[in-house]
Design brief:
This protein is an alpha+beta fold. It folds into two domains: 41 residues; 114 residues, Rieske Iron-sulfur Protein, CATH 2.102.10. It contains two helices and ten strands, in the order H-E-E-E-E-E-E-E-E-E-E-H. A six-stranded antiparallel β-sheet has the order 1-10-9-4-3-2. A four-stranded antiparallel β-sheet has the order 5-6-7-8, with no helix packed on it. The chain binds FE2/S2 (inorganic) cluster. FE2/S2 (inorganic) cluster (FES) binds next to loops.
């Protein structure tokens, strides 16, 4: 009887593990497909996002992190020379999330081995376009304003006009 109970709980455990793994696999595969087929589902990308000082990742040169740009992932990194840069982290191929690759000093998409240089340009793999780059504006309180380039340009022109 004890063996039966032991087997039963092991089976239950394995079933939950398998079920959870399957669910994670579906989420990983289906999310980019849904985003690609129904771009409106996650809403429009905001023109700017203000990261509070607590939300700004503390990065050493040649390190990167993912942050939230509205409902989408953004990639922020310090180049090996220490310059802070930010891009959309949504791959231009099938919308997987890209990562900063400090080892090879590039941006990498693991879904289909897409590679981008540190300016966001495609250097290898299937992505058809560069990654959209954001403009960064350091705030006095230590926060960081992340903006679409056209929005940053418009704000600058409005400020110049008075
Ligand atoms: S989704 Fe990035 S390379 Fe295919």
């Amino acid at each position: 009887m004890k063996i039966f109970e032991s087997l039963f709980s092991r089976r239950k455990f394995l079933n939950s593990l398998f079920g959870g793994g399957l669910l994670a696999l579906f989420a990983t595969v289906l999310t980019p497909v849904i985003r690609f087929c129904f771009p409106g589902v996650i809403g429009p990308e905001p023109d700017e996002v203000l990261l509070t000082p607590e939300e700004v990742p503390q990065l050493e040169p040649n390190q990167g992190a993912i942050f939230r740009y509205g409902n989408r992932p953004g990639l922020i990194f310090r180049t090996p020379s220490g310059e802070l840069r930010a891009f959309s982290a949504t791959c231009t191929h099938f919308e997987c999330t890209v990562q900063y690759n400090g080892k090879d000093k590039n941006i990498y998409c693991a879904c289909h081995k897409g590679y981008f240089d540190l300016d966001g340009n495609v250097i290898a793999g299937p992505p058809p376009r560069p990654l959209p780059r954001y403009v960064l504006e350091q705030q006095e309180d230590g926060g960081l304003l992340v903006m679409k380039p056209e929005w940053a340009k418009k704000k600058k022109e409005e400020q110049a006009e008075g």
